[in-house]
Structure formats: structure tokens, C-alpha cells
Amino acid sequence: MKPINDTFLRALKREQTEYTPLWLMRQAGRYLPEYNATRARLGSFMGLAQCPAAACEVTLQPVERFGLDAAILFSDILTVPDAMGLGLSFVAGEGPKFASPVQDEEAVSRLFVPDPADKLRYVTDAVVEIRRALNNQVPLIGFSGSPFTLACYMVEGGSSKDFSTIKKMMYTRPDLLHRILEVNAQAVTAYLNAQIEAGAQAVQIFDTWGGALSDRSFQEFSLKYMKQIVDGLIKEHDGEKVPSIVFTKGGGNWLEGMAASGADCVGVDWSVNLSKARQRVQDKVALQGNMDPMVLFADEETIRREARKVLDDFGPVGAGGHVFNLGHGISQFTNPDAVKILVDEVHSYSKQLHARDE
After folding, report:
1. In terms of Cα–Cα distance, which of 281, 276, 277, 260 is closest to 268?
2. HSE (side-chain half, CA atoms, 13 Å) at 256
3. pLDDT of residue 304
4. Which entry of 31, 35, 153, 225 is annotated as an active-site residue?
5. Given this model, what pLDDT does residue 41 score?
């Protein structure tokens, strides 16, 4: 059954829309006072993420406040390696930590593909609850981290500035890294398909750290496994196509490869010119992006001007398919009023562009 507002889904399928749809990466988060109140009530980030009712509550908060064109499941990319038993925790001021990093043959041999119906049931339960609460008003996006991005955290044991541990493995024991990535790809495929079966109407693969790789390494250790996931995804559910999005932060060098991955849409960060990106992918896929999140710290006039620039950069709408988004996640220090201005400008200005291009 199509959502009442299915503009986002139609844009992903490169169908004609009345305006350019908009959602924001990390749209449910610490910049919203209502999110902070819910998180404080649950006591921790994982306490919030693992409570389907609370995850549903915060997923809907930005949709209700701003009139966005899609909701995205509130969760974390590290739920998958956590379900593998690596002992995920979040340390204040330091970010995620794994108690058992995967750095040798023995640790790699213990990896397994978690059953989404078991260790990740809280995620699919949240999807079911969110779909019910949305009441078919807008689509719900499911997501996961890419195999390489997950491997970065799993091998490093947490966040890293230079990824020296995983890169050392990549050059000295590529066989170990490929084994990690193979397990991750199978796990992510099963995880995303479980989200689709629970009600997610589109899915995104977040390749946050693929941009840290050389060209050859990106092809071998990141893009290869994202293609494998896209190939294994459920393409239709409940009689409707389930579009997929791949997004590599810093991935401007590889747009053609990502466009050939089988995904319906390629997300781009703010370093890429949208019109040139569109030429490079030859309108074979939709594009998502790509305003610099820091624009939201500017005054209203600047926010509106920069939003129009992104829309103008994409060019004549035609059958190109454009989903407006930030070039990466929204900052926790963003004023919610700035988001309201952005949504208003994207919707109102793009309506003029779409009417002109009909």
C-alpha cells in the first residue's frame, strides 16, 4: 500500500513528482529537545535504541515537527556487530567501543551472521511499531552500515582518526579482512531484508568510512560488498518496489561504480557538484544530497539561498530523480528553527522548478 505522501519513493524511482522530497541524515537526534528528553528518560543511547516504543517515538519527532517526506528508523549502524557478541558500549566523550575487537585469526573465526529474529528483534519490532504509528502518512527508511564501515569499528575497537589497524590488516592479511567483510555482507543483507519484511519501504547502506580508501582498495574492500548486498535485497514487498540507496561519504571519485551497483539511488556528500554527478551517472539512478550541514548555522537568507543552489545544481527535473538531503548527518548543535526554514525553502522553491519543467 502506497503512503499518502509517496513523493520520496517516486523520486527514488525517477518518476515525476510535484516537488523535490526531503529528509535528513540523523534527523532524529540530539539537536531536538524532544529527543533529548526521551533519551534522558531511557537513560542511555542503547537503552533508547533497544526499546521499540521509544525508538518509534523519536523516529516520528522530526517528521511531525518539520513535515519531512520520509521517516528513518532510529537505530545505530553498530547493532549488527553488537549482535555478533563484540560487546558494544558508548563511552561519554569517546563514542562507541567494542570490548572484543576483531584483530586476529581466532577473533575472525568466531564471527557469525546473527539471526535478525533473535539478537536484532528489537529493531524489527521498532519497524513494525513505527509503520503502525506513521499510519501510512510518509514512507519509512531502513538502514545499515556498509560491510567496510562496520569492519572499521570492529577491527579498530571503536572510532579512529587514521584507521591504521584495519589498513594494516588490509595490506598484510587481506584474507582476514575479506572474511570479515563476507560475514558482514551476509549479516547486513539478512538485516535489511528483515527490516523490509517488517515494513521498511526503502533502505540505505551507509558507507561512512569508504572514502578513507584508495581507489583500488575501495573497489575491492567496499564497493564489491555493497554490490553483493544490493543483489541480495528483497526488491518488492507487499506489491510495491523497495528502492535502495548507497551512500559513501567522500565517495565522489566512485559515482559511476556506485551507480552500477544495482542500487536505485546514490547519495553524495557536499564535495560533489550535483549537475556534474548527474552527468556522470547519466540519469541511470536517482541522486540524494547534498547541502553542507554547516549551512544550517547560517542566517535564514543564507540557508534559503544555499538550498536553492542545490536544487538549481541538480538542473531540470525531468526523469532524473532528486532527493534533497544534507551531505552527511545533521550536527547536534543545529537550531531546529534552521531545519524548519530549510524544509520550507526546499518544498516551496522546488514546486516552482517542477511546475516549470513539466
Report:
1. 277
2. 5
3. 98
4. 153
5. 94
- Asked whether the bond before 36 is cis by omega within 30 degrees of 0, the reply is no
- For 290-301, letters b (16+ CB in 10 Å) and e give bbbbebbeeeee
Residue 162 annotated among the catalytic residues of the structure: no
pLDDT at 319: 62
> Has 76 been annotated as catalytic?
yes
Is 278 annotated as catalytic? no
Domains of the chain with CATH codes: 7-293+316-333 (3.20.20.210)
Residues with Cβ within 8 Å of 161's Cβ and at least 6 positions away in sequence, in order, are none
- Candidates 6, 76, 207, 313; catalytic one: 76
Give the chain's residues under pLDDT 70.
318-320, 358
Residue 357 annotated among the catalytic residues of the structure = no
**pLDDT reported for residue 320:** 67
Active site residue 238: no
pTM recorded for the entire structure: 0.96
Q: Which of 10, 14, 31, 39 is catalytic?
A: 39
State the burial class of residue 117 (Cβ atoms within 10 Å of its Cβ: 0-12, 13-18, 19+).
exposed
